[in-house]
Amino acid sequence: MEDVCRLSARVAAGCSVAHQVAFCQAVENACGQNVGGEIALLRVALLEMERLFQHLYTLAALARLAGAHLVASHCMALREKLVAEAAPVTGSRLLMDVCIPGGLSVRETAQMAQLCTQLYEIGQQAYPQLVLLWREYPGLSALLAGVGQVQADDLERIGLDGPVARAAGWDCDGRRIMPAYDGLWRYTSGRQGGTAEDRALLLLDEMEESLRILDLASARIGLAPAANHALSVHDGEGTGLVEGPWGGVLYWVRLAHGRVAEAFCRKPETAALLVFEQVLPTHVAEDVELLACSLGVNAAALDG
Amino acid sequence: MGLIRAVMDTAFWKGRQKRKPLGPRWPLLLFHVDTGGCGGCGMELQAMTCLPYDMQGAGFGFVTSPRSADVLLVTGPLTRTMAPVLQAAWEAMPDPKGLISVGACALDGGLFGENYAVMGGLERRVSVDLAIAGCPPSPQEILNGLCALLGSAAQGKEKETPSRG
Ligand code: SF4
């Protein structure tokens, strides 16, 4: 079971927590056990940290590919600051191996609330400057506005959700149906033009939203005990669904004889490749990398 | 396996110095190939090129073509689809050249077992000049490893970072 969980953390780096939490939820559902509110809340905090780190990484890559190296280096410097703050508490820079079926395996659970506050403060301080730089960097918006326009109907037909869909006007977010997000997540309307520029601005909006969620979560963490549950593993099936940085991550597992007999994983990168192939013919060769990056095409996730 | 043997002509490695001497081409130019895995090692390599890591100050730079590279940096387990790419990159590099594996996958396959799509790590196939352990190694650990190859101390004192990922 632990090996499969470690493997789920390595399907796609950058979406590691999403895969771990979805897998753990699937196993817990198969066992008919509930991990309780505090563990669920700590998992939400980890999911939002990952979203923050990954959105910054994506924005840096987009800026670099668009030739805005100053913006890219700002994004990476802020990401590194946040990652360096989180790593001693979570035990992992890329938040790998922080979840186990029945609970969590972060290094310093007792410091998670404080970490959420620190990340919020660092992020809040740097965020306005980053947004200003992004919006005012000469030529960046104009270049991105001409790349990768997609329609919400097409995305719905192909099945690509997440920020790509939200930036095209399809209101889909798995956090809406996750009970642990009650009172934390709220629908934020953003750009809906469906271009790479809209997606980049939506990622910036979502960063602010994640910072806000971390701030709210920090006040709630620690109000209840966060003990891991010893799972009594039965034969059965279960599913788990989580909103990762690039969209919904779903796991189905079948347990038999105390082991994971079968598992299926649905991840947004599969649909992202189909959308990429659909819009590719309308782009020049120089924009192909930028297009792939803005749609969340990820070879590592596809071969995982 | 045979393909990789052919790629990494083992005869070439015989008698090679363990440490690559500093040549006139400073900095040491690295070409990165991600042959599979989760992409985590690649993300940490990318982080190493940015602040606060002084990669260029330590004497290293990335190039986008193997033709101007001194060292091939490999991340991820070797997948069958990427084997010809790795072979082509290696053959395109001028002599003398070196091979560095970054992360557990590139060395021994890590969590990814050998199967119809994955060939495993490099260690049983070719001679690796330097193996940087970790899953993934942190940017500072990668930089320290690269500096160790040149026999120099790592630049800058960074916060201790965990190595489990
Ligand atoms: S060594 Fe670990 S982090 Fe690096 S590619 Fe392999 S699984 Fe991913």
Rg of chain A, Å, rounded: 19 Å
Rg measurement of chain B, Å:
15 Å
- Broad structural category of chain A: mainly alpha
Strand content bin of chain B: 15-25%
pLDDT below 50 for ≥5 consecutive residues: which ranges of chain A?
none
Question: Which tags fit this structure?
Answer:
heterodimer, A: 304 residues, mainly alpha, Cytochrome-c3 Hydrogenase, chain B, three-stranded antiparallel β-sheet, two-stranded antiparallel sheet, 12 helices, 55% helix, B: 165 residues, Rossmann fold, five-stranded parallel β-sheet, two-stranded antiparallel ribbon, 6 helices, disordered C terminus, binds iron/sulfur cluster
Topology:
The complex is a heterodimer of chains A (304) and B (165).
Chain A: H1 2-8, H2 16-31, H3 37-65, H4 69-90, E1 99-100, E2 103-104, H5 112-136, H6 140-145, H7 152-158, H8 162-166, H9 196-220, E3 236-244, E4 247-256, E5 259-266, H10 268-279, H11 288-295, H12 299-303
Antiparallel strand pairs in A: 1-2, 3-4, 4-5
Helix pairs in contact in A: 2-3, 3-4, 3-9, 3-11, 4-5, 5-9
Chain B: H1 2-7, H2 10-13, E1 28-34, H3 40-48, E2 60-62, E3 71-75, E4 78-79, H4 83-92, E5 98-102, H5 104-108, E6 118-120, E7 130-132, H6 139-149
Parallel strand pairs in B: 1-2, 1-3, 3-5, 5-7
Antiparallel strand pairs in B: 4-6
Helix pairs in contact in B: 3-6
The structure holds iron/sulfur cluster.
Iron/sulfur cluster binds at residues 37-38, 40-41, 75-76, 103-105, 110-111, 135-136 of chain B.
GO molecular function, one term (chain B): 4 iron, 4 sulfur cluster binding
Protein name (chain B): NADH-ubiquinone oxidoreductase
Family (chain B): Belongs to the complex I 20 kDa subunit family.
